[in-house]
Amino acid sequence: MLRPVSALFEKFSRISCHRSLPSTSTVSAMAKSKYEYVRNFETDDTCLRNCYIVVRLDGRNFHKFADQHNFTKPNDDRALGLMSRSARSVMEDLEDIAIAYGQSDEFSFVFKKSTNWFKRRASKLMTHVASQFSSSYVFFWKEYFGEQPLLYPPGFDGRVVLYPSNRNLRDYLSWRQADCHINNLYNTAFWTLVQKGGLSKTQAEERLNGTLSGDKNEILFSEFNLNYNNECALHRKGTTLIWEKVDETSTKKITVPKEGEKEVTFTRTRRKVTAHYCDIIADSFWNEHPDILEEDC
Ligand SMILES: Nc1nc2c(ncn2[C@@H]2O[C@H](COP(=O)(O)OP(=O)(O)OP(=O)(O)O)[C@@H](O)[C@H]2O)c(=O)[nH]1
Ligand SMILES: [Mg+2]
Ligand SMILES: [Mg+2]
């Protein structure tokens, strides 16, 4: 795309420090300079049509980041809240994200199949998501961590994956939620053995070595009177963000002739990003929110 001539004038005069502005013919010659060919080195990373585009971000070296910022173990609600807040900022900023799912230090953003945002260019989509998320993480840090300082700038890597069918997309999200469940059950059992059972980290690791889900549930229940199913849903299920229509009621003072000032209540419907901490593997979630998925082609 050609830049507006005025922009080129400005750039030219700044870079070259020429006192007089170049003629229009010089500018168009510059725009098609002999260097122009380097553009052809750019690769086409347009995402295939009719596919959901998933961008997954993951915190870089968050094992260390969590330690250095005193995250509570196994789950830090401030950190999880900040991840969700940053993800909401991404959804509000970038159109066409139908659903996002997050757990631990990761968040997946699902762009509609039909999106034409950034002409479906993978690098543009991924970098916009990653930069908006990272800057939001820093921007909202204080809201969640209060006086605890952010010691260094956190980073997030990103990847793009395409899913052609609703089944594939649901299986992807199920995979991430199953991962959340497996890790959280392990971490809950591990830290309960350490914090309440008085085991060392090595002893707790040995105790859990080779155990199945049922065994971990049993340890928690029989030894610590803890029913894993009653643990916080945010920790067990992760966070699902979707767009929903929400009624918002507000009151306003208006002046009515002869009657004077009156308080009136207004209700208006707005699209808002809402958070859900529920199972997204079974059909019920998808039946309750039929607008998220598009028709399979
Ligand atoms: N204590 C605590 N740690 C957390 C929490 N959420 C994430 N983490 C840490 O973040 C890590 C995330 O795991 P990974 O993404 O696999 O590992 P990573 O250290 O970020 O390494 P890379 O992603 O490969 O850069 C976990 O292993 C925890 O150490 C939390 O709520 N509390
Ligand atoms: Mg990570
Ligand atoms: Mg991770």
From TrEMBL:
Cofactor(s) needed: Mg(2+)
Keywords attached to this entry: GTP-binding, Magnesium, Metal-binding, Nucleotide-binding, Nucleotidyltransferase, Transferase, tRNA processing
Annotated residues for binding of Mg(2+) 1: 58-59, 105
Domain tRNAHis guanylyltransferase catalytic: 35-164
InterPro entries assigned: Thg1_C_dom, tRNAHis_GuaTrfase_cat, tRNAHis_GuaTrfase_Thg1, tRNAHis_GuaTrfase_Thg1_sf
A molecular function GO annotation: tRNA guanylyltransferase activity
Residues given in the record as Mg(2+) 2 binding sites: 58, 105
Transmembrane portions of the chain: none
Cofactor detail note: Binds 2 magnesium ions per subunit.
UniProt-listed Enzyme Commission number(s): 2.7.7.79
Reaction(s) this enzyme catalyzes, per UniProt: a 5'-end ribonucleotide-tRNA(His) + GTP + ATP + H2O = a 5'-end phospho-guanosine-ribonucleotide-tRNA(His) + AMP + 2 diphosphate + H(+)
Subunit-level organization: Homotetramer. Interacts with MFN1 and MFN2; functions as a guanyl-nucleotide exchange factor/GEF for MFN2 and also probably MFN1.
Family: Belongs to the tRNA(His) guanylyltransferase family.
Protein name from the UniProt record: tRNA(His) guanylyltransferase
Species annotation: Astyanax mexicanus
